[in-house]
Amino acid sequence: MRITSGGGTHAVFARVAPEQKLRLVKSCKRGDTSSPMTGDGVNDAPALRQANIGVAMGITGTEVSKEAAAMVLTDDNFASIAAAVEEGRGVYDNLVKLSVGLCHQHRSGSVNPYRCACRY
User: Fold this and answer.
1) Residues of the chain whose pLDDT is less than 70?
2) DSSP 3-state of 73
3) In sequence order, what are the residues at sequence separation of 6 or more whose Cβ sits closer than 8 angstroms to the Cβ of residue 106?
4) Which residues pair with 9 in a beta bridge?
């Protein structure tokens, strides 16, 4: 299936064998493309470890897949991935705003207890 969003087209694969998952991850990395991967079994662990972000299932997943993954879905709900990404983007945006604010304070001569390594 192909999904178009944000000006780009993305391929989505479903019901893929563990060997194919590993080949897909390696192919994406060679092409300098992001390679997220989900899995729940022992055989999925190599692909989960090599992917840019490996996501294991928390309820049905094996301990091996959970250890190999960077993120574990505690509820096995794929909608949680989108919610986590959205939450993470908000946290990142807030950290950027804080850093910029601290740098501006530092440059304006205000007393700032934080060291700032900003480049202008």
Assistant:
1) 1-7, 104-120
2) strand
3) 112, 114, 116, 118
4) 4
